[in-house]
Amino acid sequence: MLSFKSGTGNFYLNKTVTQHLFDFKKAVKITKQDMSKPLAKKRWYRLIPIVFITYSLAYLDRANFGFALAGGMAHDLNITAAMSSLLGSLFFLGYFFFQIPGALYAANKSARRLIFWSLILWGLMAMATGMVHNVNLLIVIRFMLGVVESAVMPAMLIFLSRWFTKAERSRANTFLVLGNPVTILWMSILSGHLVGTLGWRWMFIIEGAPGIIWAFFWWYLVQDKVKDAKWLSESEKNDVEEQLALEQQSIKPVKNYAAAFKSRVVILLCLQYALWSIGVYGFVMWLPSIINEAPNMDIETTGWLSAVPYILAITMMLVTSYFSDKTLKRKQFIWPFLLLGAIAFYGSYLVGTGNFWLSFTLLIIAGGAMYAPYGPFFAIITEVLPRNVSAGAIAIINSFGALGSFLGAYLVGYLNGTTGSFDASYIFMSGSLFLSALITMVALKREGTTKSAS
Length: 454
Known about the structure:
The protein has one domain: Up-down Bundle (Growth Hormone, Chain: A). Helix content is about 80%, strand content about 0%. The protein is built from 18 helices and two strands. Strands 1-2 form a two-stranded antiparallel sheet. Helix 12 runs parallel beside helix 17 and helix 13 runs parallel beside helix 15 (about 355-370).
């Protein structure tokens, strides 16, 4: 028997208590074994291609607008430089206001149903963009596109967090976000060709139709929860659900959404993502216009050159997410890339218009660096907060990202139009990414020990 002394005398741990301690240690050992148990690989080749295609279609509506403006839309509808900036950014304003309601619906009801209807509606609105003859109607359509798509990103992240564990989540999220650069890669080439041969109206009509068609594939191929998957065995379902449940046990509970939204880490990540998104969507929306201003440039060549930064972005995203999951040190795979993006934008400003190819090379680096951290970033949100508030946290952080996207798309266009050059917008995007990198280091200062929202 074991004994120890206290202020009230001698106490003894009898055989029964010792046995409980042994049982506890045994349970911990079993838990660690369960966490390392291999899970069904079929989740990857069954779900990830579907998720990738679904979110890829959303990005058509974000990036092809820049090609339409550069390819005759501004002239045909008498759109001024200031109105071009407003129209390009209105999408993100609608996106900002309707993130949280949609995310809560996805978390509490059905991400599957929400995404199904979003695919249909944004496909219809994208096609309608190619039929407008009135700027006021175009304003409404651009805003409503953002409203319709607003819940899709948080809904997808919630969906993936229910199918993939912590050790897999950065890669799963990366394959989701890869829909952005991969789509812009081929869309830049296709949109440039369509605008050059058929005009901007047919570009919108042709590129809007796939979303409507794909909605029915999405509905047939996915289920909201692991337990509803007919293509997994009962033991495979149990293994996934057990590991996801074990992960939640290590996260300190948060009482409600109000407590989560007031937490230090959520507030800082909202600000961080807003600044990051200024750089990303200032770049995405206005890169075609920047390239198209080069000497002897036509719209089809602009399309091919606009695709180049996204080749680097895809490569960097895949490599970053792999090592992020391998080490589970998320912060180290976020802020250095944002800092690199800031330096590349500033370098492009210093080079100026005198050397287009060097300036363009720096823009390629900036594009790749800005996209690289997406997988680790979205993985860490679901690892910091418990499941009961993670949906709302994802939504509010993504909402501020949309606000940053609005500011980036609008202010970059405004600066380009009012100054007559791209210098001011390069400095603006560089400064935003630099601040984002600094805030990342502060927000995730105690990564690995941050287990609560307080």
